[in-house]
Amino acid sequence: MTAHVVTIPSATVTQAVSAAGADAVIIDLEHGVADYAATQAMIAATQGTACAPLVRVGAIDETEVKRVLDLGAEGIAFPMIRTAEDAARAVASLRYPPDGTRGFGPFVAHSHFGVPLMDYMKMANGNLTCCLLAETCDAVENIGAICAVPGVDLILPAQFDLSVDLGIPGQFDHPLFLETIGRIEAAAHAANIPLANVALDQAHAERLFERGYRVIMGVDLLWLTSKTSEMQGWTLT
Question: Is 31 noted as a catalytic residue in this protein?
Answer without folding.
Answer: yes
